[in-house]
Input
Amino acid sequence: MYINVAALFLLPNQQRAVSMEFFLLQAGKLNDASNYLPIALQLIFAIGLVGVIIVGSSFLGPKRKTADKLVNFESGIESQGNARQPMAIKYFLVAILFVLFDVEVIFFYPYAVNFRELGWEGFIAVVLFVTLFLTGFIYIYKKGALKWEE
Output
């Protein structure tokens, strides 16, 4: 039950005391552990359903192992060579840099939506952000992290 706290001050003194007492009693019940019971039940149900589906599929699914089924399959291309051969670190470096700069660009969206409300303080913060962003990009470029051929 919700009580309008502002309306309590418009009531006469005797009614205000009774309503305030009721409000305080209700506020004490808001943080009971019983309020989290539906969340706990939903989590238990979800975890139980996943377990039942996994166990059920292992019992009910077909178990015909053939040579064709046991061959590694990737994107419709037959495997060639050893999968354990070393790979150039440049690929991982470019991938990490892409994710890093991609996440940084995402931070421009809230500013673009609220630029009028943020005013000059928000503008200065975004200019500082862009300056740090470009400084990091220039550093990475000068270190040669984006040169793919080397």
Summary: Helices lie at 5-8, 13-28, 37-60, 89-106, 108-143. The radius of gyration is 30 Å. The chain has two domains: 1-85, 86-150. The mean pLDDT is 77.
